[in-house]
Amino acid sequence: MNTIELKVSLPPGLSEDEAKVLLAIKLYEVGKVSLGKAANLAGYSKRSFIEILGKDRIPVFAYSPEELREEVGL
C-alpha cells in the first residue's frame, strides 16, 4: 500500500482526530480499505471501530440477499 501525507485545511469545529475517523469510515464504507485498516487509520481497535460504525448505522457485514442465504445455508 502506498503511503502519502495530506495537508488539509479543516473547517472550524472539526478536529484532526474527527477527520481521520470520518475518512476511515468512508473508505471502509465504499470498500477501499478493510475493517482492520480503517480502524488503524482512525486510531481505534477493530472492536471500537465496529461500535463507531454501528452508531453511524454502517453495516459491518454487507451481504447481498443471495450471499446471506448461501452463508446461512438456506
Summarize it:
With 74 residues, the protein is mainly α. Helix content is 54%, strand content 0%.
Name the features.
single chain, 74 residues, mainly alpha
Total number of helical segments? 4
Which regions have little confidence, pLDDT < 50, spanning 5+ residues?
none
The helix-strand sequence is HHHH
Total beta strand runs: 0
Question: How many discrete domains?
Answer: 1
- Mean pLDDT value: 91
- Morphology call: elongated
Largest sheet: none
Seen as an oligomer or otherwise, the chain set is: single chain
Rg measurement, Å: 15 Å
Helix/strand structural class: mainly alpha
First and last CA, distance: 38 Å
What percent strand? under 5%
What does this structure look like?
With 74 residues, the chain is an all-alpha fold. It has one domain (16-72). It is 54% helix and 0% strand. It has helices spanning 16-29, 35-42, 46-55, 65-72. The model has no long low-confidence stretch (mean pLDDT 91). Pfam families: UPF0175 (PF03683). InterPro entries: UPF0175, UPF0175_domain. Belongs to the UPF0175 family.
SSE inventory with pairings:
Layout: H1 16-29, H2 35-42, H3 46-55, H4 65-72
